Amino acid sequence: MTSEELQAIIAAGLPCEHIELTGDGRHWYATVVSSAFEGHRLIQRHQRVYATLGGRMQTDEVHALSMKTYTPAEWANHPAE
Questions:
Q1: What is the pLDDT of residues 36-75, one digit of tens each?
Q2: Is 67 helix (H, G, I), strand (E, B) or coil?
Q3: What is d(CA 74, CA 81) in angstroms, rounded to the nearest whole number?
Q4: pTM given for the model
Q5: Closest CA to 49 of 69, 29, 28, 35
Q6: What angle do CA 75, 65, 46 make, to 5 degrees?
Q7: What does 4-22 look like in DSSP terms, one character per residue?
């Protein structure tokens, strides 16, 4: 899977203001900014992103996904990495 394909899958299932992905095709690191995260705890945010992947984690199409999740306000106040 390419980063463009993974980004399209996440964006299709979650309204995202910003997505950054790096990885090797199986192990991914994501930064996801979405207004859907407003009022949700970190685990709930991650569950929302995992839900966009459907069974792709179970079939090993996406082996691992490490992520940072932000609301738009949090992202606006986040220092550049």
A1: 999 999 999 999 999 999 888 888 788 889 999 999 999 9
A2: strand
A3: 14
A4: 0.89
A5: 69
A6: 55
A7: HHHHHHHHHHS--SEEEEE
Q: For the beta carbon of residue 75, count every other beta carbon within 10 angstroms.
A: 17
Q: DSSP 3-state assignment of 74? A: helix
Domain ranges of the chain: 3-76
C-alpha 52/C-alpha 7 separation (Å) is 10
User: Considering the domain 3-76 in this protein, what is its CATH number?
Assistant: 3.30.300.90
- DSSP β-ladder status, 64-70 and 18-23: unpaired
List all residues 6 or more positions away from 30 whose beta carbon is below 8 Å from its beta carbon.
6, 10, 19, 20, 21, 49, 65, 66, 67, 68
Task: Dig out the tokens for 56 from the structure.
Answer: 């792709």
